[in-house]
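Task: complex structure prediction.
Instruction: return structure tokens for all chains below.
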Amino acid sequence: MSAIEFQGVSKRYRDRPVLCDLSFRIEEGERVVVHGPSGCGKTTVLRLVAGFLAPDEGKVLVGGRVVASEGIALIGPEQRRLGMVFQDLALWPHLTVAQNLDFALKAQGLAGEIRRERLSDMLARVQLSGSEDVYPARLSGGQQQRVAIARALVAQPLAVLMDEPLSNLDDELRDELCGQILDLHAQLGFTLVYVTHSKEEMRRIGVRSIRLREGHPAGMG
Amino acid sequence: MLILAGCSKASNPAKNVVVYVSEDQVFSEPILKDFEKETGIQVKAVFDTEEAKSTGVMNRLLAEKNNPQADVYWANEPVRADVLRQQGISAPFKPANAQQIPAQFKDEQGYWTGFSARARVLVVNRAAKTKPTSVLSYVDPEAKGKAVIANPLFGTTTAQMAALFSVWGEERGKQFLAGLKANQVKLSTSNGESADFVGSGEFEFALVDSDDAVDRMRRGKPIDIVYPDQAEGEVGVLIIPNAVALIRGGPNSENGKLLIEYLLSKETERKLAVADCAQIPLNRGVEPPKELKPIDQIRTMKVNYADLAAKLQAIQPVLKEWIGY
Amino acid sequence: MDRVLNSKRITLWVAVAIFVIAGVLPLCFMLAASLTSAANYTATLGNPRTWGLLRSSLLLAMFTTTLASLAGVTLGIVLAKTDLPLRSVFAVVLSMPLLFPPYILAVGWYEALGRGGLLSQWAGSAVGEATSAWLFAFPGAVLVLTTAFLPVVLLLTMTYLRAVNPALEQAARLSSRWPAVLGSITIPLAAPGIVLSLVLVFLMTMGEFGAPAFLRVDVFPVASFTQFTAFYNFGAATAAALPLVVVALLGLAVEQRVLREKTFQFGWGLQRDCEQVALGSARTPLFLLITLTSLVLVALPLGALVLRGLSLAVLREALDRAGASAIRTLVYSAVSATALSMLGFFLAYLIHRRAVAFWRSIDAVALFLFTLPGSVIAIGLIAVWNRPSTNWIYATPAILVTGFIAQYAALSTRTILAGFAQTSPSLEEAAEVAGAGWFRRVREILVPLAMPSILVSWAVTFLFCAREVSLALLLAPPGQDTLTARTMTLMANGSPELVAALCLLSMSLTAVPLAVYGAARTLWCKAV
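Output:
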């Protein structure tokens, strides 16, 4: 069963075509990079997978189920069991690090004991044990990135989407976090869809890549 | 009072009465509270602002026509009570206590009954150079820029205009209005405001209601009251009584009738004469306020209030044009 | 996602339905009444004087808005961003005029500056005559309305200045001094709130009748008012008020042009840790200046008004006369403010996310209802709800709450909308992806993030409801009037001392919403 699949997906934004007849398949556990120049539709691909947009034509499948088809989102974002790291991280400023992570766990209806366990485990994996009661605004840039990644992973999603998560960081930090992401992937084996315009990140992260140019696939590899 | 006592003991299941009041709250509320105490019927009142300040109780009555919420309307002048008759909002009712009110001050068919009146008088500042004796003093060249009058689109001043048009005829009425403009008569928002301006010396004289005049006198303002047009052949003073009307289809009509009887009683008129509102009783045998003459010693304008209401409608276009709307 | 019926869409549609029932329905009734006869329109709109009055009002609105914005924004900056002592006290004092209908403020200014007023007693009658002549004219109207509406600009400016991400100011401070930072960074970032306050002041001035009438300045709403009060012509009164819709749309257009396409996402700014400007040597002179401003703009008219009421006997009489109306005002205003903030939250969300196709219309209609004279809305509500079958609404305070919702929906919606404009939609998206359904997102993400603006909306709508007169006079059930309405009715030949004491009572009511707001804000900042 594929983790994520696009079948002939097209999307327009105010009569401007953003994606044209895009089809691809991402298998479970794969690391795929979606890359291309600015404005080519990379973020749109992620937003279609997440469920914030519905395709004008074609179908989107997640976990083997058709989640959106021909203009209608059949299954909302909250039911697709995905994790996402946003470009601006979108950490909830009024919640502590622990509460940020716990939010997704609560949605699964897990018991408190189990939630605490998973939370601690994930924070340990991103080297943030002890930061449970800290508010995101008090963390450094790199630490905030790691919280965002931890939050995306903690609920054991079907797939994790990352939208240019490292673009605001310096080289050293970017390198470190790239390594972190690869480590986590090796440990946990999740499906990763990673959007970037950086060739360096593409090279390191992606086992396979989908290159877009003006909404059209310009190469799969 | 015996009637009231009897009725309240007999059979009144509902213990409420709803009254909309245009008479100033400071004066009317104590009377209503006394009614509550004496009968045990709870009074729910809606009071009014001075007309020029806000859209009030009359509009509410008119808007509620199809599903009346009020039982009684206590108007501070009969023209509005007559408007209710014209609109089919009030119901005829001839209370026992109305018998003592002269016929001139009540509706023939009982749609409203007058009581506790004001006279339209001139207040003159003691330091004034002009000595007005008539409404026509407003258009005396000597009084240019020295007089103030309340906006004739509102309240008792409207009634005054309608009365003058009735008595003088249309031509002379229009001349008078034109004369007011030519003589730079200022417009205030209310009779009370006019009285204040004369009391503070900002203007020399104004035509106001007698209760406004008495109030400023009692507060020590340097003013005198002049009853205009009292000489032989002159038009006399316009008397404006309060008027009470029963609302058709109100929720507690029987209690409404009790309230109307109470308002028309000698006791109520005595209270309203003695209070700061200094209203002139229409019942013989009730003492007027000490600053004012009893009603039978004043040369009054002979007007029919129903005709006055009709005249008011008729001169509307003239007034509108004069104001500029 | 757009066409599926889910709890989010149902909630938003319910909010729209409430707004339509409360505000649009009575408006339709009144419009229908006005359309029964062409004479309704020609009577006023065909009259050249009406357009002269409109010009007067526009001029009055422009001057008032300009002065209120200059003073309000400056004061807002000083009270929100500097280390001036007693900032909160000044904020409360300068907000007090908001508790009074402008008419009463006009009376206060008359007591201060009129012939025989305070100033004339101190400085001599010649001065009094001069100031009186000045007051009872256009400049006086500008002064009165500026002091009446300044608090709106002040409160909204303070709220949105505090929301600016300190990091953005810090970045600018590395190369510029504070005045440049304030001018180029802080104020532009607070623009949504500031522009909103200017639009509100403009519209309120356009719709204001009582104070200019007292000062004998003829303004546009006089046409509609006269149709009601002198001629009882509901249709013509509505027709006469309709040009205000054009003004409201104009205000909307101006606002959209100024804020077009500007996103004000500060990341995830929370309203604490506000960057403070150290005043240094400027502190004392500025403190004295603000004290003087407060004395002149607030203490003078309100003081003149209440000085007459300062005797135990009169205060006792006032409490006696006020009866339970003070308590009722608190209850009606609190209930209405709560309902308005809840409705405003969902309407703001709907407008911000453009969640329904006709979101623009909702925004425009709400703004128009805000501008419309309360009498028009009230008569419309009576027409809709005064039936035996709906007595359970009409004969209770619920009808007054409905009136407040119709009149002030724009106020709460726009205030909270300006708050939404400062947060990133990705915060809600992240919650969606994490598996939270609509109600959980509202409860745990959207409401907490919007909380500062929700609190401001609550406090401001409370004050507006408490001081409102037209709706209260026409809709409050018999025997259940509000304190402000009662003050206005008792003004008819009530002694100035009594009126003053009632105003003093009203003033003490201001303390309530501001105290609630202050406490809630403190609790919120501690919790977060």
